[in-house]
UniProtKB/TrEMBL annotation:
InterPro entries found in the cross-reference section: CoA_activase_DUF2229, Dehydratase_Activator_Redct
Domain DUF2229 per the UniProt entry, residue ranges: 4-209
Name of the featured protein: 2-hydroxyglutaryl-CoA dehydratase, D-component
Top-level taxonomy: Bacteria, Bacillati, Bacillota, Clostridia, Peptostreptococcales
């Protein structure tokens, strides 16, 4: 019988799902992804994690619990850095310990370290040590990785093409920015993206812009960029300003996120200083009410439509 590997549908799953699922499936594992976020998962996560954790990390606890009795292993890599010279939020490197400390009687955890801060040279070793949880066949592991990476690249290409299509459309365009788990977990953001689309606007996210464009544009920022998330979000911001074909920016943030308090503020400052694109920060936590989120989204969308009609696109923020 094949090994069952559980992957929590939380945090960086929202960016790397194709990569991880393809990799383990190509190795012959039976991959079980936790169900979509719901009230029970959120409550279990908040009740079984430390108070100081941000909401995406609490939610991760809930997803791990929902896999607990269904799998042989749970994939919780210790992510230290994904790109040379850039750190990721420290919560990712402490995640396996946080989970082991807070949740009891879990299956074995695949907690291989992923650390490419100094160089990408360790990639093969990292891939091999994760793959060995399923097989000792080195060739099979490398083949599975190549297939997984190919599928991941195809996913990204499809997103890039979607962006080109949106650019050709005459509809208004809103950039929704933030960490992938804040953008793509519909329960947590109360389907913000679907709600914007239902008003006849197009939605663009940073994942739709190709990485070469983001990297090139991030270099235009004069300050130093330490964080992996920051390069993507600041690069996206510089690109938007240069192209000037976005009608509004909504930044979705989690309450208590230290990285967002710096990166979100930087993004807002650049947009307000260098453009007149309307900007709104939407900070969410486990107590956010849907009515309040709807009201803010509707007011922002109305303002964008009204602004074109009556104000000839004058600055929306003074
Ligand atoms: S970046 Fe922010 S939201 Fe994400 S894990 Fe770190 S503190 Fe939490």
């Amino acid at each position: 019988m094949s090994i069952k590997i559980g992957i929590p549908r939380a945090l960086l799953f929202h960016k790397y799902s194709t990569l991880w699922i393809t990799f383990f499936e190509e190795l012959g594992a039976n991959v079980i992804v936790s169900e979509e976020t719901n009230k029970r998962i959120l409550n279990e996560g908040t009740n079984n994690s430390v108070d100081e954790a941000c909401i995406p990390v609490k939610l991760f606890h809930g997803h791990v619990l929902s896999l607990k009795d269904k799998v042989d292993y749970i994939f919780i890599p210790r992510i230290v850095g994904l790109h040379k010279g850039e750190y990721i939020c420290p919560k990712f490197s402490g995640l396996p310990e946080m989970i082991k400390y807070s949740l009891k009687d879990l299956p074995k955890i695949i907690d291989t370290e992923i650390n490419f801060i100094k160089s990408i040279e360790k990639l093969n070793d990292t891939v091999q040590s994760i793959g060995r949880y399923v097989t000792n066949d080195n060739k099979k592991i490398m083949y599975a990785w190549e297939k997984a990476y190919e599928n991941y690249k195809m996913d990204n290409l499809r997103l890039n093409e979607k962006f080109l299509d949106i650019n050709l459309s005459n509809n208004k365009k809103i950039m929704v920015m933030g960490h992938p788990y804040n953008l793509y977990d519909r329960y947590m953001n109360m389907s913000a993206i679907d709600k914007i689309k239902s008003k006849g606007l197009n939605v663009v996210t940073p994942e739709m812009i190709d990485s070469v464009t983001i990297n090139e544009n991030s270099k235009k920022y004069k300050g130093k960029i330490f964080w992996a998330f920051a390069r993507k979000l600041i690069g996206t911001t510089m690109y938007l300003i240069e192209k000037n074909n976005i009608d509004g920016v909504i930044y979705i943030s989690s309450f208590g996120c230290g990285i967002d308090s710096v990166v979100g503020e930087t993004v807002e400052r650049i947009i307000r200083r260098e453009s007149n694109i309307p900007y709104m920060l939407l900070t969410l936590d486990e107590h956010s009410g849907e009515a309040g989120v709807n009201t803010r989204l509707e007011a922002f969308i109305d303002m964008i439509k009204w602004r074109e009609k009556d104000e000839n696109n004058i600055s929306a923020h003074g």
